[in-house]
Design goal:
single chain; 181 residues; alpha+beta; 7-stranded antiparallel beta sheet; 3-stranded antiparallel beta sheet; 44% strand
């Protein structure tokens, strides 16, 4: 009898955990500030919105998990010719050198690039492997988004210890970016 009651409570508790987790993953938060709007999963946390960035005219960071984040980097299209010619391939190289310590300090054992498609969005995926801390990997996903005289790059930095970012979450962010000014 005690085993049956214990089993009942274990099944009930498991169902509650599963239903709570699925509710959270369907909840969306929107951020709207200074002419830019973006939506993202409610479990992610806005870390910064910086207009004084060294890597873009504006830089917004969202924390995905303990060691993972997504960056939204925007440039106003103006007389600066280099911005018009900038693409995700070139931008990722520059950004990874500034952002990822394993790339910056030359501790990379391999970097594999491939094209990736998430719904209507085509981007670039870079798998960075390192011998730091017993061997780690980071997945970098980058996408171009251009609208209303603004070029944006959306870059996901996902540490191998945090798991993967879902295609649904990638499409949510890319599809929700709106430049309103």
């Amino acid at each position: 009898m005690n085993k049956a009651i214990t089993l009942f409570y274990l099944v009930l508790f498991s169902c509650l955990l599963i239903s709570c987790g699925s509710e959270k993953s369907n909840t969306v938060t929107s951020y709207k500030e200074q002419g830019l709007e973006v939506s993202y999963p409610a479990g992610w946390e806005l870390q910064s919105d910086n207009s004084l960035s060294q890597v873009a005219d504006r830089e917004i960071w969202l924390q995905i998990a303990e060691n993972s984040f997504v960056g939204l980097y925007t440039f106003e299209l103006d007389e600066r010719d280099f911005i018009k010619d900038l693409n995700i391939d070139v931008y990722l190289d520059k950004l990874m050198r500034k952002t990822l310590s394993e790339v910056r300090y030359g501790n990379t054992t391999s970097m594999e690039r491939s094209k990736v498609r998430y719904g209507d969005y085509t981007g670039l995926k870079v798998e960075v492997k390192t011998d730091m801390l017993g061997g780690r990997s980071t997945q970098v996903l980058g996408f171009d988004v251009e609208q209303k005289n603004t070029k944006s790059f959306v870059v996901f930095f996902v540490d191998g210890l945090d798991g993967d970012v879902s295609e649904k979450d990638v499409r949510l962010i890319l599809g929700s970016i709106e430049i309103t000014n």
